[in-house]
Write a structure and sequence with these properties.
Protein name: Pimeloyl-ACP methyl ester carboxylesterase
Structural class: alpha/beta
Pfam family, one: Abhydrolase_6
Keywords: Signal
Oligomer: single chain
Radius of gyration: 21 Å
Strand order of the largest sheet: 2-1-3-4-8-9
Organism: Tunturiibacter gelidiferens
Number of helices: 10
Shape: globular
Largest sheet: 6 strands, parallel
Helix content: 40-55%
Distance between the termini: 43 Å
Amino acid sequence: MVNKFALFATMLCAAALSSTPKLQAQKSEVKNIVLVHGAWADGSGWKGVYNILVKDGFNVSIVQEPETSFLDDVTAVKRILALQDGPSILVAHSYGGSVITEAGTDPSVAGLVYVAAHMPDAGENEGDDGKRFPSDLGKSSALKKTADGFTYLDPAQFHEYFAADLSAEQAAFMARSQVLNAAENFKAVITTAAWRSKPSWMLVAAKDRTINPDLERWYAKRAHSHTVEVAGASHCVYVSHPKKVADVIENAARAVSK
């Protein structure tokens, strides 16, 4: 009788132990995706990526940062992160990369995805980083500034420098709905770079004229990011190639869930 009881107890303990990894795997699964737009755009550009991620079972939130100040934008991202019910993959395009580099130190962030985005280190700002590999936009006359210090892209040149692989009609709409970004935001210095302590992914837009693709590659190499390059893609790669962008995001979510 004693031997039977001992055998039963041993089997029960073994079953409990064998189920523990499965429970832990379920608890660590990342299903929350937070998307952050960049300068001269808004969250609506993520619609194609959003549709794919939602169809694949992810919980997706899109931050509409005001671009009135870098601190305002970081706060806007953290506000949305606080609404999530578990760990998140934090994704950004363009200037949004600087924002998630600062905001991504939040403990709820499991990984970072940079989509044709800036990726400064602590003590750096994206304006200075851009001088390492000047962009076609930086050499052009397309970048304008209002009397009160907000930047925007000349609508007549928006298609050429920001969204060359979109239709003229779609680029025209984006040009007329762009969110003006405070010029000082490009000089905002990173205090702690989240990618230094968290896994990161970089999607390089090979025909980007807003951020030099060589800068995107340099950022990725420095951060040891998992890197994917989309041939022929403009700066608006998240709009023109939503499936490829969504694939990178989903790969990131799977990687941090293991």
